[in-house]
Amino acid sequence: VSATGRTEADVLIDGETIAAVLAPGSHLLGTDLAASVDTVIDATGKYVIPGGIDAHTHMQLPFGGTEASDTFETGTRAAAWGGTTSIVDFAVQRYGERVQDGLAAWHEKAAGNCAIDYGFHQIIGGVDADALAAMPGLVDEGITSFKLFMAYPGVFYSDDAQVLKAMQVSRDTGMLTMMHAENGPVIDVLAAQLVEEGKTDPYFHGIARAWQMEEEATHRAIMIANLTGAPLYVVHVSAKQAVEQLAAARDRGQNVYGETCPQYLYLSLEEQLGASSDEWGAFEGAKWVCSTPLRSRAEGHQDHMWQALRTNDLQMVSTDHCPFCMKDQKELGRGDFRAIPNGIGSIEHRMDLMYQGVVTGRISLERWVELTSTTPARMFGMYGRKGVIQPGADGDIVVYDPNGHTSIGLGKTHHMNMDHSAWEGFEIDGHVDTVLSRGKVIVDDGAYLGAKGDGRFIKRGLSQYLV
Ligand code: URP
Ligand code: ZN
Ligand code: ZN
Question: The Amidohydrolase-related domain covers which part of the protein (predicted)?
Answer without folding.
Answer: 47-441
